[in-house]
Design a protein that fits this description.
This protein is α/β, with parallel strands linked by helices and 379 residues long. The protein folds into two domains: 16-243, Aspartate Aminotransferase, domain 2 (3-Layer(aba) Sandwich); 245-376, Aspartate Aminotransferase, domain 1, CATH 3.90.1150. The protein is built from 14 helices and twelve strands. Strands 1-7-6-5-4-2-3 form a seven-stranded mixed beta sheet, with helices on both faces. β5 (166-170), α7 (175-178) and β6 form a beta-alpha-beta unit. α1 runs antiparallel to α9 and α12 (304-313) packs across α14. The longest helix is centred in the last third of the chain and has 20 residues, at 245-264. The chain is globular.
Length: 379
C-alpha cells in the first residue's frame, strides 16, 4: 500500500464491526472480561485501547517499524525513552536541540544519574571523539531545532553499531513522509505528534517507534508502567490528522521554499537557515537521505528591533510557540523554545535576539509573503 493511501486508511485491522468509516472513539477506562482468565484483548486503557491501537499500527507502518507507542505528548515519549538507561550511563545528543529536551536531560535525567555530552552531530568525528566506555546512545535531531543542521543518519547508524550504541532520531520536523530513519539504520524514532502528524494545533501527542522485538517489548513495559498514554479522543484526532499528512506536507514545503527564497532577497535578513536552499551546507546530504526538505525556516534579522517589529506586526501569521500545524507560526526561540538554555550556549549556536523561526502552514504563499512584507516595514 502506498504511503498516501496508508495515511487515509491506516491499520487494516478492523476494530469495529458496524461499518463506521471513521475509527470509533472507545472512550472507556476499562473493559469487561468474558470470564475468568479470559480477555477480549483489551483490559485497561492505560495498557491498550482500540482507538489508540489503530493509530499505533498506522504509525508503525508509516515509519516502517515493528511497533509504535502513542504518548500524551512528545516530552512524555522522551521521558519514557530515558527509562531504558541506568545511572552512570552517558548519552551523546545534538547540541542544537529542542529546549524542552535539553531541559529534561539536564534537570531530570541528570538528577537520576544519567550524563550527557552535547556535540554537533552533523560532524561525526566530533561524535566519535565524545564516545566513552559508559556511552550508551546517540540522540539526534535532524534537521535540528532551530538551526536546521542535518545529520547523516546512515553514517551515524554505522558509527553507533561500531560502538554498540542505540541510535535515536527525532523525526518531528520531516515526518515519515519525507524521512524514514529506521530504514537508514536508526533504532528508535521519536515524534512530537502535536506537530505535523496532528497538523491542526489542537492536541498534544508523542510517539516512539522501533523495529527490534526485544526493544519494542521493553518500551511497551515502560509505557504501561509509567502510564503516559494517549487518550482515546486524542488518538482519534491524530488518526484524522494523519489522513491529510501528505497533502499538507507537500503544500507547506512548496510555500516554505518560496518564502525561503524571498527572505534571501530581503536586505533586513542576514541569513536564512533552510535545508532546501542550495547554499545550505547540508543540502546534498538532505537530498540523499530525505524525499523533501520540510517547511521549517529559521532566519536571522539585521537586529533585535527588526525581529521584535516582525513579531509585533504579523497579522495573518501568528506569534506563537509550536509548529507543524495548518496555521503559519512565527517563534522567537530565545524567549520561547530555548529560553531555558544558558545564554552563552544559546548565543554560541546562533540562537540570539535576532533569530526567528517560521513554521509555514497551508495558507497561500503570496498572502504569507505579503504579511511578512508589511511586518518588516519600518514605521
Amino acid at each position: 500500500m502506498k504511503f498516501n493511501t496508508l495515511c487515509v486508511h491506516g491499520s487494516t485491522d478492523p476494530c469495529d464491526r458496524t461499518g463506521s468509516i471513521s475509527v470509533p472513539i472507545y472512550q472507556t477506562a476499562t473493559f469487561s472480561h468474558p470470564g475468568v482468565r479470559e480477555s477480549t484483548g483489551y483490559d485497561y486503557s492505560r495498557m491498550q485501547n482500540p482507538t489508540r491501537e489503530h493509530l499505533e499500527k498506522t504509525m508503525a507502518r508509516l515509519e516502517c517499524g515493528r511497533d509504535a507507542i502513542a504518548f500524551s505528548s512528545g516530552m512524555a515519549a522522551i521521558t519514557a525513552l530515558m527509562e531504558l538507561f541506568s545511572p552512570g550511563d552517558r548519552i551523546i545528543a545534538s547540541d542544537d536541540l529542542y529546549g524542552g529536551s535539553r531541559r529534561l536531560f539536564e534537570n531530570i535525567n541528570v538528577k537520576n544519574g544519567l550524563s550527557f555530552d552535547f556535540v554537533n552531530t552533523s560532524d561525526l568525528a566530533l561524535v566519535e571523539a565524545a564516545i566513552r566506555p559508559e556511552t550508551k546512545a546517540l540522540f539526534v535531531e535532524t534537521p535540528t531545532n532551530p538551526m536546521m543542521q542535518v545529520t547523516d543518519i546512515a553514517a551515524a547508524a554505522r558509527l553507533s553499531r561500531k560502538h554498540s550504541l542505540r541510535l535515536i532520531v527525532d523525526n518531528t520536523f520531516l515526518t515519515p513522509y519525507f524521512q524514514k530513519p529506521l530504514t537508514l539504520g536508526a533504532d528508535i524514532v521519536i515524534h512530537s505528534g502535536t506537530k505535523y502528524l496532528g497538523g491542526h494545533n489542537d492536541t498534544l501527542a508523542g510517539f516512539l517507534v522501533a523495529s527490534d522485538p526485544e526493544l519494542c517489548e521493553r518500551l511497551r513495559f515502560i509505557y504501561k508502567t509509567t502510564g503516559a498514554c494517549l487518550s482515546p479522543f486524542d488518538s482519534w484526532l491524530l488518526i484524522r490528522g494523519i489522513k491529510t499528512l501528505p497533502l499538507r506536507m507537500e503544500k507547506q514545503q512548496e510555500s516554505a521554499q518560496a518564502i525561503a527564497r524571498w527572505l534571501c532577497g530581503r536586505k533586513e535578513i542576514r541569513k536564512v537557515f533552510y535545508p532546501g536552499l542550495p547554499d545550505h551546507p547540508d543540502y546534498e546530504l538532505s537530498k540523499r537521505q530525505t524525499s523533501g526538505f520540510g517547511a521549517m525556516i529559521s532566519f536571522e534579522t539585521d537586529g533585535r528591533e527588526t525581529a521584535e517589529r516582525m513579531l509585533n506586526r504579523v497579522s495573518l501569521i501568528r506569534f506563537a510557540e509550536s509548529l507543524g500545524g495548518v496555521e503559519t507560526l512565527l517563534t522567537y526561540p530565545m524567549l520561547q523554545t530555548h529560553a531555558d538554555v544558558p545564554k552563552e550556549e544559546r548565543e554560541a549556536k546562533g540562537i540570539n535576539e535576532r533569530l526567528l523561526r517560521l513554521s509555514v502552514g497551508v495558507e497561500d504563499a503570496d498572502d504569507l509573503i505579503e504579511d511578512l512584507t508589511q511586518a518588516l516595514k519600518e514605521e
